[in-house]
Amino acid sequence: MKIAIAKERRPHERRVAATPDTIKRYLQWGFDVAVESGAGEAASISDDAYRDAGATVASSRAEVFANADIVLKVQRPLAQGADDDGLSDIPAGAYLIALHNPYGDRDGVDAYAKHNIVAFSMEMLPRISRAQSMDVLSSQSNLTGYKAVIDGAANYSKAMPMLMTAAGRINPAKVFVMGAGVAGLQAIATARRLGAIVSATDVRAASREEVQSLGASFIMVEADEGDTGQTAGGYAKEMSDDYKRRQAELIADHIKEQDIVITTALIPGRAAPILVNDDMIASMKPGSVIVDIAAEQGGNVSQTKPGEISVTGNGVKILAEYNLPSRLATDSSALYSRNLMNFVELLVNTEDKKLEIDWEDEIIVGTCLTRDGKVVHAALLPEEEKAPEPAATEDVAADDGASDTDSTEKGA
After folding, report:
1. Fewer CB within 10 Å, N or C, the chain?
2. Quick one: pLDDT band at residue 393, thresholds 50, 70, 90?
3. Same domain for 76 and 120?
4. What Rg, from alpha-carbon coordinates, does the chain have?
């Protein structure tokens, strides 16, 4: 059995799909592991570290993928073969495990089927307790929320906590987090640790207790009677036009007093919803900062320039940089690689050291996009067989966070 780890080639991507620690576990399970030279460099992992762990370090992508049973990646390969991150080197029949953005790149999914690749999408994991250790969206969104606050504080021209000095008092910064999913909750916790006064909003009434438990105040309008604001799976859902109008009025009144605003709303495969419009930006104080986590899907802010740091006419700075978890590449790679390792364990009989997959396992069914030359995931089948589309989430991808940073094609 062979696992292949290639160097990521997408712009803004610094992560790697395996670390020396996870490679040691793969070797114990009976795998040979091949790593492309330089694959871990951006995550501070040297080729020698991989060799010391027992992996073979190959000089070319083709050599890494030769005869591979499992290919581990962070971001999906391109459907076109002309690019050196394309599908041409991946063997037919190999298991390709990565963040595939299946809703935003359906052509890519069709290409996997055409190339007879068995693709597993880590974004599609079912929300069950058994899958928590494989949950890449949560592991990467945690770091996204943390990094958003750190970047916001670094670009804010004042101190975050209240400071008492002989020359007088410095008031604490006010931070407003829009979306209380994994990224949002981590942003709240980080801003609180830095001493800011924090408030947050979310369409899910159930988020109130989580937000308040972190020491932040909760801002929201009441939903329509009987509407919890979330799907059966616990994700935020898209609300009615009347709710959006009332929520926007409340936010407009609140946002003008804030120093740092962090937006986190994403809808898989669709443009990010606008949460902060031109009028709201115009009401903010000069020197205020907005961190738009959803920049790779167009952004939650009307004046976002994806991939850039820009300043509005009234002096508000908008941070819309790509792939925040990748900017913490060492830690995000460590978490992501453990998520993958836990998933790979489902595919192998570790005692007999052979591949053995239960195709009826709900985790396997929920993540498998293509098999036997066909698209098999229920949500990607023809319209008459298709499951309901995914609800809005409050975290990157992501996107993804977990974050897919081929930003000119798709976004987070």
Report:
1. N
2. very low
3. yes
4. 22
Candidates 9, 127, 192, 327; catalytic one = 127
Q: Are residues 322 and 338 in the same domain?
A: no
Identify whether 411 is part of a domain. no
pLDDT category at 405 given cuts 50, 70, 90 is very low
Same domain, 263 and 156: yes
Domain count, the chain: 2
Same domain, 379 and 257: no
Distance of CA 322 to the CA centre of its chain: 11
Q: What is the DSSP letter of 227?
A: -
Predicted confidence band at 271 (pLDDT cuts at 50, 70, 90)? confident
Q: How far apart (Å, rounded) are the C-alpha atoms in residues 175 and 171?
A: 13
Please confirm, yes or no, whether 127 is among the known catalytic residues. Answer: yes
Q: Which of 105, 135, 202, 395 is catalytic?
A: 135
Q: What is the CATH number of the domain that holds 49?
A: 3.40.50.720
Query: Is residue 51 domain-shared with residue 193, that is, in the same domain?
Result: no
Structural domain including 205 reads 141-326
Residue 404 pLDDT level (bands cut at 50, 70, 90): very low
In a domain, 136, yes or no: no
Quick check: is 9 catalytic?
no
**Residue 321 sits in the same domain as residue 347:** no
pLDDT class for 87, splitting at 50, 70, 90? confident
- List 75, 121, 138, 407, catalytic entry: 138
The yes-or-no answer on residue 132 being catalytic is: yes
Residue among 367, 394, 407 at smallest CA distance from 148: 394
Lowest mean pLDDT among 85-94, 253-262, 311-320: 85-94
Is residue 213 part of the annotated active site? The answer reads no
- The string of pLDDT tens digits covering residues 282-311 is 999 999 999 999 998 999 999 999 999 999
> Please, are residues 123 and 147 in contact by the beta-carbon 8 Å criterion?
no
Q: Band of the pLDDT at 240, cuts 50, 70, 90?
A: low
Candidates 44, 80, 132, 213; catalytic one: 132
387 in Cβ contact with 379 (< 8 Å): yes
Q: Are residues 197 and 302 in the same domain?
A: yes
Tell the burial category of 388 from Cβ atoms under 10 Å away from its Cβ (0-12, 13-18, 19+): exposed
Question: Of residues 235, 243, 322, 336, which has the active-site annotation?
Answer: 235
303 labelled catalytic: no
